[in-house]
Automatic annotation (TrEMBL):
<protein>
    <submittedName>
        <fullName>Coffee acyl coenzyme A-3-O-methyl transferase</fullName>
    </submittedName>
</protein>
<keyword id="KW-0479">Metal-binding</keyword>
<dbReference type="InterPro" id="IPR029063">
    <property type="entry name" value="SAM-dependent_MTases_sf"/>
</dbReference>
<dbReference type="Pfam" id="PF01596">
    <property type="entry name" value="Methyltransf_3"/>
</dbReference>
<dbReference type="GO" id="GO:0032259">
    <property type="term" value="P:methylation"/>
</dbReference>
<dbReference type="GO" id="GO:0008171">
    <property type="term" value="F:O-methyltransferase activity"/>
</dbReference>
<dbReference type="InterPro" id="IPR050362">
    <property type="entry name" value="Cation-dep_OMT"/>
</dbReference>
<dbReference type="GO" id="GO:0046872">
    <property type="term" value="F:metal ion binding"/>
</dbReference>
<dbReference type="GO" id="GO:0008757">
    <property type="term" value="F:S-adenosylmethionine-dependent methyltransferase activity"/>
</dbReference>
<keyword id="KW-0808">Transferase</keyword>
<keyword id="KW-0949">S-adenosyl-L-methionine</keyword>
<dbReference type="InterPro" id="IPR002935">
    <property type="entry name" value="SAM_O-MeTrfase"/>
</dbReference>
<keyword id="KW-0489">Methyltransferase</keyword>
<comment type="similarity">
    <text>Belongs to the class I-like SAM-binding methyltransferase superfamily. Cation-dependent O-methyltransferase family.</text>
</comment>
Length: 246
């Protein structure tokens, strides 16, 4: 059994490494990155990752292994009409834009345009900016507006949700009408830095503690929702794929 000091050490490491919730060894994660991810990462994504690394909120970015996963997934499902809630500097957005066909579309929403614009030159240089329709502001009213028009119902092939965790269930209610039958909604950070299994009195950063109960609630609600099939993957900070079946 691990000594108490080792356990504490591990807890500290977990809090520091935002992109790893299940892999117990940093070396193993590094191995995945160096062996399979970085050598195949498109130049533009590498550049955007480096731009983002200099930004003070860089902890929010999608990890390179998750970016690779998203790209593969989008191609596997032949996604064309997609949506992203929570853009930040655009790493997952660029992964999506690169994976879509030339006439593919991404409706991208974020309350912060400045961070999007930090990554935009890289996205433009990659020649995929024409696929992106960026809307500045909270996502919920945009979804409500979309729902007013019947032709948007069941029109999205893929939706990536990576924003305010306390709104995920509000998004879910609306997104189920907007995604097509058999289409996918991916909810990001569903392991929430491993905090979903931490005892309530465990040391946690403030924002981790604040959103933790919402993430736990979401995970239970998704597991109980008969309108979807689900698969929760230990990629990045946990991503739950939901396939609409009703
Ligand atoms: N997917 C991004 C990437 O790959 O870098 C990371 C997104 S970051 C974890 C979360 C983002 O959600 C932030 O940029 C934040 O401004 C945005 N956000 C927070 N509340 C929001 C809301 N109500 N509507 C839209 N975006 C929101
Ligand atoms: Ca995320």
């Amino acid at each position: 059994m691990a000594s108490e000091s080792t356990q504490n050490g591990e807890q500290r490491r977990h809090q520091e490494v935002g992109h790893k919730s299940l892999l117990q060894s940093d070396a193993l994660y590094q191995y995945i990155l160096e062996t399979s991810v970085y050598p195949r990462e498109p130049e533009a994504m590498k550049e955007l990752r480096e731009v983002t690394a200099k930004h003070p909120w860089n902890l929010m970015t999608t990890s390179a292994d998750e970016g690779q996963f998203l790209g593969m997934l989008l191609k596997l499902v032949n996604a064309k009409n997609t949506m992203e809630i929570g853009v930040y500097t655009g790493y997952s957005l660029l992964a999506t834009a690169l994976a879509l066909p030339d006439d593919g579309k991404i409706l991208a929403m974020d309350i912060n345009r400045e961070n999007y614009e930090l990554g935009l030159p890289v996205i433009e240089k990659a020649g995929v900016a024409h696929k992106i329709d960026f809307r500045e502001g909270p996502a919920l009213p945009v979804l409500d507006k979309l729902l007013e028009d019947e032709k948007n119902h069941g029109s999205f092939d893929f939706i990536f949700v990576d924003a305010d965790k306390d709104n995920y269930l509000n998004y879910h209610k609306r997104l189920l009408d907007l995604v097509k039958m058999g289409g996918l909604i991916a909810y990001d950070n569903t392991l929430w830095n491993g905090s979903v299994v931490a005892p309530p009195d465990a040391p946690m950063r403030k924002y981790i503690r604040y959103y933790r109960d919402f993430v736990i609630e979401l995970n239970k609600a998704l597991a109980a929702d008969e309108r979807i099939e689900i698969c929760q993957l230990p990629v990045g900070d946990g991503v739950t794929l939901c396939r609409r079946i009703k």
